[in-house]
């Protein structure tokens, strides 16, 4: 059995795990990223500590390579740029530094791309060459597989589907534009919408959770339980998800879109509605060969995706 380490660098936590070639996580850990220090040195040391802790505890397992997922852009040499709350990485040679430390091959890519690589190797994307994995959470990210490979674009920005503009006069987005897809179809967008409706005094069972405990999960639960407002909020999100997916279908003609992230926990309730709206907006000839599935990687998508990057990069 061969093993790789997958590291998921998040804004709050670093998650790392040892993964075998079948996609089982045999050991894992989680430590704070340490963003408050505002230092690449501190974050890199935390990443190194997480890897060396795993290696020390698992001396019997030979680690073939390390994969890292970052919430930013990585070039093919593993130099990274991050623009979110871990802004300390600017053209930073992450792969080179980790390779020197641990003496094994190291591969780094964007976390949404790794989520797609994880589905490709271990999950719902097995056997497919042209598909898109969208991760619906705080924002919406995508990993795009074209002809069996992640498509990075000219400088690594491909897949920023969350900022696809769907309404120029629409809601403001964190990126500075108005009407981005993720301002209508992400988990945070429906939480915001729900809170504003409760604040307005609209009659809804969501009031039980207001303000701090309103999340995507309770909106889905209340919608299923018959709360009209929750259902309306969820239906609207599905309509916008379908609209954005239809745009992707029309541009890329993929065989599948795999939906991951917290929202995918709504399972068939989500799938049925998103399929319906996608079918309304996509070009019929492209839609007839297209399917929508739920991601299979779940909570461990970050670790598994990063390990999948390591396994697939070794094969290249
Ligand atoms: Zn935006």
What are the segments in which pLDDT stays under 50 over at least 5 consecutive residues? none
Read across the widest sheet, the strand sequence of neighbours is 3-2-1-4-8
Strand content: 15-25%
Order of helices and strands: EEEHEEEEHEHEEEHHHHEHHEH
Q: Which sheet architecture does the biggest sheet show?
A: 5 strands, mixed
Number of strands: 13
The value of Rg in angstroms is 20 Å
CATH class of the largest domain: Alpha Beta
| Amount of helix | 25-40%
Q: Under the CATH scheme, which architecture of the largest domain would be assigned?
A: 2-Layer Sandwich
Average pLDDT metric = 96
What's the tally of helices?
Answer: 10
Structural class: alpha/beta
Shape: globular
Distance between the amino and carboxyl termini: 19 Å
In total, the number of domains comes to 2
CATH homologous superfamily annotation of the largest domain: ATPase, nucleotide binding domain
How does this model look, in words?
The chain has 316 residues and is an alpha/beta fold. The chain has 2 domains: 3-119 and 300-315, ATPase, nucleotide binding domain (Nucleotidyltransferase, domain 5), CATH 3.30.420.40; 128-295, ATPase, nucleotide binding domain (Nucleotidyltransferase, domain 5), CATH 3.30.420. The protein has 10 helices and 13 strands. The chain has helices at residues 40-57, 94-102, 111-122, 182-185, 187-200, 216-224, 228-252, 268-281, 284-287, 301-315; strands at 3-9, 13-20, 25-32, 63-70, 73-74, 79-81, 92-93, 106-110, 131-136, 140-146, 149-150, 256-260, 291-294. Strand 2 and strand 3 form a beta hairpin. Helix 3 (111-122) packs across helix 10, helix 6 (216-224) crosses helix 7 (228-252) and helix 7 packs across helix 8. The radius of gyration is 20 Å and the shape is globular. The two termini are 19 Å apart. It binds zinc ion. Residues 163, 173, 175, 177, 180 line the site of zinc ion.
